[in-house]
From TrEMBL:
Residues 46-80 are annotated as: Disordered. Residues 57-68 have a biased composition (Basic and acidic residues). This is Uncharacterized protein. It comes from the Bacteria.
Amino acid sequence: MTRPLTAAQRRIVEEADPVTGRLRGSDAQLARLVLMKLAFRHPRPPHDHFLTPAGHRIREAGPPEEHAAQPMPTSPPVASAEGAFAARVGGEAPVQDGRARAREVRSAWQGLVELRRMTNQGGATDRPCAWERTHLVRAAALALEAAGCRPAEGDDGDGYLVAGTPQPEAVAVRGRGPDGIAGCATALEQAGWQVSEHAQPRTGGRYLLASPRRA
């Protein structure tokens, strides 16, 4: 990108679907974002436009004034703008309306499966897509919650915790409480992730390393 986004372009980027990155705007506006490598036009009908990884980074960084006032995050943010869906990685406040949350998770997962179909070679939906590889923590957390696994709530709640790791394309999944990480490995494998179980050197506690499967 050689020049700053206009107000209209930034609005289109910021209003992109929080899970799929699907964009809405005029043909000219979307074509310009494609030239700036912030969006791509899907080759199959209906030829919708989606954010590229660079576009997602622009969206998550926020307006320029906010970006200048805050340090760049070292991992994908786990909170979205008010009213937008955010994957629960563990440690958040308890959900007040479980049924509403279940609907949100189901809709977000369906949107992600559709993004796989539209962006993976051959329309494969059984393995993660490029968006998931650039949003590892959020993608793994969504896969877990969509499969019915329970995220840890607050500082002491039982359930899973997802975090980034120094390893490329890998997240760590830990568990609190008697159930630990039971069920998390199966959920991730069914969602197209490669999973291995490890022991922490000092405590002996078990945790998972998970990476998006490529084939």
